[in-house]
Amino acid sequence: MRLNAYESSRLYKEKVKAYHDKKLLKKEFRPGQQVLLFNSRLKFFPGKLKSKWSGPFTIKEVRPYRAVELFDPQSETPDRTWIVNGQRLKLYHGGNIERLTTILQLQDP
Question: 24-91 — its CATH code?
Fold first, then answer.
């Protein structure tokens, strides 16, 4: 009975993995595209409503194994580049990124 449970569990895991892998979308990046960078280290800073996406940055070069070289077009030193994992990027479709700051005055009823 235990062997049957192990076997059915293994089959279930294989089916679930195949289902989720089928739903993944492959991202194709090209030099010159603008992207947003996901900041995973933001959790150490206070403020829940801070955006975890920064940018936009421009892709300078796409390297093997999803490594992408980025540069910031608005920085003072245009030769400063860095390499990030392509999984931390998403395409930027344009428009202004607004940082909304609203102060709400709460009153006791």
Answer: 2.30.30.140
